[in-house]
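Recap from last week: sequence in, structure out.
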Amino acid sequence: MEQFRYPLWQAKPVEPQQGVKLEGASSNFISPQPGNIYIPLGKQEPGLYLVEAMVGGYRATTVVFVSDTVALSKVSGNELLVWTAGKKQGEAKPGSEILWTDGLGVMTRGVTDDSGTLQLQHISPERSYILGKDAEGGVFVSENFFYESEIYNTRLYIFTDRPLYRAGDRVDVKVIGREFHDPLHSSPIVSAPAKLSVLDANGSLLQTVNVTLDARNGGQGSFRLPENAVAGGYELRLAYRNQVYSSSFRVANYIKPHFEIGLALDKKEFKTGEAVSGKLQLLYPDGEPVKDARVQLSLRAQQLSMVGNDLRYAGRFPVSLEGSETVSDDSGHVALNLPAADKPSRYLLTVSASDGAAYRVTTTKEILIERGLAHYSLSTAAQYSNSGESVVFRYAALESSKQVPVTYEWLRLEDRTSHSGDLPSGGKSFTVNFDKPGNYNLTLRDKDGLILAGLSHAVSGKGSTSHTGTVDIVADKTLYQPGETAKMLITFPEPIDEALLTLERDRVEQQSLLSHPANWLTLQRLNDTQYEARIPVSNSFAPNITFSVLYTRNGQYSFQNAGIKVAVPQLDIRVKTDKTHYQPGELVNVELTSSLKGKPVSAQLTVGVVDEMIYALQPEIAPNIGKFFYPLGRNNVRTSSSLSFISYDQALSSEPVAPGATNRSERRVKMLERPRREEVDTAAWMPSLTTDKQGKAYFTFLMPDSLTRWRITARGMSGDGLVGQGSAYLRSEKNLYMKWSMPTVYRMGDKPAAGLFIFSQQDNEPVALVTKFAGAEMRQTLTLHKGANYISLTQNIQQSGLLSAELQQNGQVQDSISTKLSFVDNSWPVEQQKNVMLGGGDNALMLPEQASNIRLQSSETPQEIFRNNLDALVDEPWVA
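Predicted structure tokens:
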């Protein structure tokens, strides 16, 4: 026991180090507080000390842990790995006694082996502690926190036939599931009933649907949205075996555009100071141009910068530049001449166009000035190399373009030195010899200096170091196949002789010391600060596993994780139709093929045929089925150190605190308009198809009466749980088709100006229009031009009835449509109620003229009479 006095006026105050300042901080939380001081205890022998301080009548106690050993721990769900190392040099220190406790009792204990490591088995609580004593008697404490970031249980993939609906539409739902035991292995789900709940954008429960989930086929169901369904995001909640699973779709009062607006610029890339020129192209779904369309243009600009390969916008809001109005020519083109940008910018061009069909189509196009998307891919055999080594870089065009790279340039990030060189004409590769280690950025440029491709590359060599307190790990590839060898370049900030290397996912799968490599990897020391680790990739690594490097030095510790991504086998699902273009009402034959690594395999498929314009309004919400069932897993191992332990007094307040309010905003849906004769967005929905042993399945459907482009999406799962997804496209087109351009409900006394539009893909072709109404037939001989033709009808329509139109050419019917016209009384509707005593035989009701919506209720008792009049009494209680 030692005792001494210390003059408080000579104590050093507790304050941040010299030069530590938070610019722009709204508080002075790091400013020194009077009375908070450091009291030196001097150099003590390793051990555990109880320290008591007395000032006047006040006293306080604490414990001090003194040790030359650091405990570095990795905790997972059922395991704890402890590595004890020297605090100064980081060497492994064996023979340390370890107690793992939850603060209430000792869960388990052990002694570190010759490598300084110890593995303890126990279920990990959220917070636990390591109490340790090294061979010299030093005591250390480490606090560990653990939470599950990856849980393997039942995964249910819930998706709808399309992502966007109108009020009143039918929604088809499919559920596919597997019971996962680890990242790769799964089994069929348990067949059981489930309840599907539909919640609208306000969070109100609309309806509940009973769904039976089958182990092999999954489950399917459908429901219809109410006619007054509110717009916004809807949620599907599936209750299955005491668990709730969720999915979503959107509802909007949309009308799809009846023609498309494309943007074709005169140049692929524009530089600052250059006028932006090009043309807009207006096309109907079958590819025919939209002539004489009125087009309004609105241009806004927003400055941008480039960080890596990501766009960064300097301003939050675009600035309006100009607006104009013009007309498309006979080929559906509109000349575009935009002002030059003085700085790298993002142009937002809003186009609103009308072809005379009373509906406008609006779209927004983005134009990047000075930097656009990459046109070439740049690659090399490995993502790092040795200094002085010749590295071959290969480049290839991603799309056909007149722009070709003529020069390459590299920039060393450590000192910003750069070098450029010419590329061979017509070449596909070039060689660079990096004589200095470091991190390099390579770019390819065209003759105008625009960047066409870019790549990062690391070079190892003597003098290579990472930033202080960090470890750099660079993998030679981004994706590995089972059986390959992953090469990892490890760079330390200083010469290091010892570190802990681990493979982690749900637990520490493998471990090794830097000085004594285990048999799961090979190590090569390249220089004082760099090592190369070679790890054979096995099937168990899929879809990914974490390679971690941990070391301690001079009272500090650091670790770094790097992922090893491994390819997961997926089903190859292909969709094929007997032809690419169909007419409305024609039978479409679809062939589906499922295979695995080129060999046919039987699988359960779900197929939907959806109007492509739906995805222009709302992109697909459901994730890719492969990424859903086999996503990149999170690391379930938490790393901590005894150097981070401060005290036991970090307690939570016992007073309850209200949870914070959520902050969310609904994303708006574009309201694009498109007139249609048949409002069909899903042409076919096949929730359960099975391919045979040859991997083949077939189905047919009738092409709806809509001229558009259709997307066929097929998702599937084999009996072993392997999944895949494929898509194909087809078009529906017609040379002549009609649509009404008149209302269908009129008031008595109105004189309708009946008319319709005839859309023609032919020019100056004679046709005959035959219309029928109320037994009268009218024939008109017409000569149509390409595009929309408005035709006035000659019928005298004064009453309700069925109006039909038929378009003939060369004696053949090309198109026909019909609609019901209704005439209603123009007086204000008044609700009336009348009591009628019924007798034997016929009873006259004596209804007023133009009576409609007649409802008859029978009442036999006074209670029934009261209930029948209850609504009127509630509305006007004084009448009673």
